């Protein structure tokens, strides 16, 4: 089908399709459109955002089955073929013959590209190499000076993932202030966040951007927008004296303060009641994974707050209340909170 028709048909499944390049639309028309239509017939919506545990298991199953089908002896060879130049031609031929794109995305209602990137992240042994040594940091600075921001090239030289080298360089590229935030730094951060959201709004909704331009007061954008994913490396550059993770943590701190508007939500009786309500609501969902929870509805359990704020409250609750929570599944954590923590909180209340 022609490009305009492809874009029009994809718009039913991908609301932001107008922001996708022509070349990506062509690929999606071939790899995704028929899949999306099949999922629609089954009443399944196309998904974005964090992958669920169930989806991760499906990706693992798809990769293992494809390896078994083709005889390729490792997921790294399949997904990082350029690391094995001597086997490159054979692997490419097998991937074409056995319909790699279709097989890898089987049973997962997401764009193929996102599934492929997730598979690469799951099976890349370079993602799990621990802290950078002083020697590695020096090498990273040297490679960046030679190759610029070609993170693919640098990741091969460093035997680290693309994302890992990009983020680590972001942290070490300039002198960083690790002390308390000054008023000037905080103001720079708030201005930077406002600027990137304004730019995003201008692209997506010009009328909203206009109202934002006219407002100089604190509530210059709705609270859900403030809690959206932001381009932290861009914000880091605008702030200048802090790396991206510091900016993100500080912004979340500022945002939490703004949203509570001085209310002492987690003190005394209100705090106990909020935790009790949150545990009960989570238990009632019977969700097997955090991504199956409708966090927007749950926000009513502790007040009129964005879902990300509610999620952060849940995270704090499980970390402080559930022993060995990292080794438990989401449903096991909820069961523990309901069976052990809830009676304790109700008695305290």
Using brief descriptors, characterize the structure shown:
349 residues, mainly alpha, 20 helices, TTF1-like
Architecture overview:
The termini are far apart. The chain contains 20 helices and no strands. The protein has helices at 3-10, 22-31, 33-41, 53-70, 75-79, 88-97, 100-104, 112-123, 134-147, 151-158, 162-172, 183-204, 206-214, 223-226, 232-239, 244-260, 268-285, 295-298, 307-321, 330-348. The protein has four domains: 3-123, no CATH class; 134-173; 183-260, no CATH class; 269-347. With 349 residues, the chain is mostly helical. Helix 9 (134-147) packs across helix 11 (162-172).
The pLDDT mean sits at 80
What portion of residues is helical?
55-70%
Count the beta strands: 0
Number of domains: 4
- Shape call: globular
**Structure classification:** mainly alpha
Number of helices: 20
Low-confidence stretches: 208-224, 261-265
What share of the residues does DSSP label as strand, in percent?
A: under 5%
Distance N terminus to C terminus? Answer: 63 Å
Query: Which series of helices and strands comes N to C?
Result: HHHHHHHHHHHHHHHHHHHH
Concise description?
The chain has 349 residues and is mainly α.
SSE blueprint:
Elements: H1 3-10, H2 22-31, H3 33-41, H4 53-70, H5 75-79, H6 88-97, H7 100-104, H8 112-123, H9 134-147, H10 151-158, H11 162-172, H12 183-204, H13 206-214, H14 223-226, H15 232-239, H16 244-260, H17 268-285, H18 295-298, H19 307-321, H20 330-348
InterPro entries: Homeodomain-like_sf, SANT/Myb, TTF1-like
Domain Myb-like: 124-172, 173-255
Protein name: TTF1 factor
């Amino acid at each position: 089908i022609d490009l305009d028709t492809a874009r029009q048909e994809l718009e039913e499944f991908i609301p932001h399709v107008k922001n996708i390049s022509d070349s990506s639309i062509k690929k999606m028309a071939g790899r995704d459109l028929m899949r999306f239509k099949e999922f629609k017939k089954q009443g399944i919506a196309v998904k974005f955002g964090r992958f669920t545990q169930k989806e991760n298991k499906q990706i693992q199953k798809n990769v293992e089955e494809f390896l078994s089908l083709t005889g390729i002896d490792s997921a790294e060879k399949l997904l990082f073929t350029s690391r094995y130049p001597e086997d490159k031609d054979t692997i490419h031929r097998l991937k074409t013959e056995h319909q790699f794109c279709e097989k890898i995305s089987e049973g997962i209602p997401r764009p193929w590209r996102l599934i492929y990137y997730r598979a690469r992240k799951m099976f890349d042994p370079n993602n799990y190499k621990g802290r950078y040594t002083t020697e590695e940091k020096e090498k990273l600075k040297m490679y960046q000076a030679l190759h610029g921001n070609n993170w693919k090239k640098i990741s091969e030289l460093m035997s680290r993932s693309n994302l890992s080298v990009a983020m680590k360089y972001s942290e070490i590229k300039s002198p960083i202030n690790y002390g308390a935030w000054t008023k000037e730094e905080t103001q720079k951060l708030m201005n930077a966040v406002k600027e990137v959201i304004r730019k995003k709004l201008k692209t997506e909704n010009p009328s909203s951007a206009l109202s934002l331009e006219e407002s100089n007061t604190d509530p210059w954008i709705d609270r859900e927008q403030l809690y959206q994913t932001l381009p932290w490396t861009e914000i880091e550059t605008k702030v200048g004296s802090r790396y991206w993770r510091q900016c993100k943590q500080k912004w979340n701190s500022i945002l939490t303060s703004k949203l509570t508007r001085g209310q002492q939500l987690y003190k005394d009786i209100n705090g106990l009641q909020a935790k009790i309500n949150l545990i009960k609501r989570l238990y009632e969902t019977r969700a097997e994974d955090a991504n199956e929870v409708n966090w927007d509805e749950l926000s009513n359990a502790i007040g009129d707050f964005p879902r990300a704020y509610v999620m952060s409250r849940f995270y704090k609750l499980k970390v402080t209340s559930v022993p060995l929570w990292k080794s438990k599944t989401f449903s096991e954590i909820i069961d523990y909170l309901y069976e052990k923590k809830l009676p304790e909180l109700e008695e305290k209340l």
